[in-house]
Amino acid sequence: MSESTQETLYCIGCGAAIQTTAPQAAGYTPASALKKALATDTRDLYCQRCFRLRHYNEIVPVGLTDDDFRHLLAAIRDATALVVYVVDIFDLNGSIIPGLQRFVGDNPVLLVGNKEDVLPRQIRRTKVREWMNQQVRAQGIKPVDVALTSAKKGHSIDDLLALIEKYRRGRDVYVVGVTNVGKSTLINRIIANNTGLKDLITTSRFPGTTLDKIEIPLDDGQKMVDTPGIIHPEQMAHVLSGDDLKLVSPQREIRPKGYQLGNGQTLFLGGVARLDIIDALKPTGTVYVDNNLPLHRTKTENAENFYAKHVGELITPPTGDAVKDFPPLVRHEFKTTAVTDIVFEGLGWVTVGADTRVAGWAPRGVDVVTRPAMINKK
């Protein structure tokens, strides 16, 4: 069957147009697999990339650029729709889409913070929403509301759907976000809640699994559109392998770990970050990262030699072949005036006391920022 004589078919996993001629391009499917799919049910048609990702967790790179993604998103400006902007609570700065306002035009934006389920219970959710709102407004984005949810666990999905109905007012819904924030997982959860179909859209820990718009019909004749994730290079996900991401990205509710970190001490967060206490009135440090991430304390004067000697072995991740390609850790210094969270984007944070001078280290390109402590026991 010639591709030129048949209607254009699309992968239901990533949205790319199916083609059989260019193995390295998006939507490639072997001609034999396409023929077999057409003989059964085209609704179950996956490209080779999605098939490998779903069944073998194997990522196959394709030739789409960041400009390609932005071109697809530009169509939102001309639409009349509600924009659901999904961010990762643990990587908010890394979730920012530069120039998002240009893409959405006059359309309202509903900000959704994903991975709420792994936040410690002591954190007031109203405080998290207020912080998220402040951060995106500083980037020129003015959300009509802020919601928290867990795409993985299905937390607060009904509440989110109620907010979507409240603000879309019979219009289409465009779901946007950078790669690896759980956007497609969230849409899969919404689809499953409403239709019973599970894992329709391809998801993984690897950045950039949605390659074109995927349209899901709504009951009133409008549609929900899953857009491709904007590739944001300043994300922890782009410097770690899929296996290492499992050790870094929190998967369960975080259990805080208290450390008595005094002057001249360093705490390594795996091999992906470190915190130096330069000057503190009293020992300080409560760590909020994945429960399984190895933590190691040492003297700051020995920290560089300790890292060079033990990275990939005693302090992991990175692991295996990723060690030699792992970017160097870059230093960011801060002086606190109140109890403060030192936030390592995509990893978690360490809470330190007031009047403390610290240095946070993260892979080159990954941000380290501060914020008022989310949990202040004083």
What does this structure look like?
The protein is α+β, with helices and mostly antiparallel strands and 378 residues long. It has three domains: 3-56, no CATH class; 68-232, P-loop containing nucleotide triphosphate hydrolases (Rossmann fold), CATH 3.40.50; 248-372, no CATH class. It is 24% helix and 23% strand. The chain is built from eleven helices and 16 strands. It has helices at residues 31-38, 48-56, 66-73, 92-95, 100-104, 125-137, 157-168, 183-195, 242-248, 303-310, 322-325, and strands at residues 81-88, 109-114, 145-148, 172-176, 214-217, 223-226, 257-261, 265-269, 273-279, 284-288, 295-299, 329-335, 340-344, 348-352, 357-363, 368-372. A six-stranded mixed β-sheet has the order 3-2-1-4-6-5, with helices on both faces. Strand 2, helix 6 and strand 3 (145-148) form a beta-alpha-beta unit. It starts with 30 loop residues before the first helix and ends in a 6-residue tail after the last strand. Mean pLDDT is 83; it is low at 1-5, 57-63 and 196-211. It comes from Lactiplantibacillus plajomi. This is Ribosome biogenesis GTPase YqeH. It holds the Pfam family MMR_HSR1. Residues 69-233 form the CP-type G domain.
Oligomer: single chain
Question: Main β-sheet, in a few words?
Answer: 6 strands, mixed
Can you tell me the CATH topology of the largest domain? Rossmann fold
Total discrete domains: 3
- Structure class: alpha+beta
User: What is the number of helices?
Assistant: 11
Protein name: Ribosome biogenesis GTPase YqeH
Organism: Lactiplantibacillus plajomi
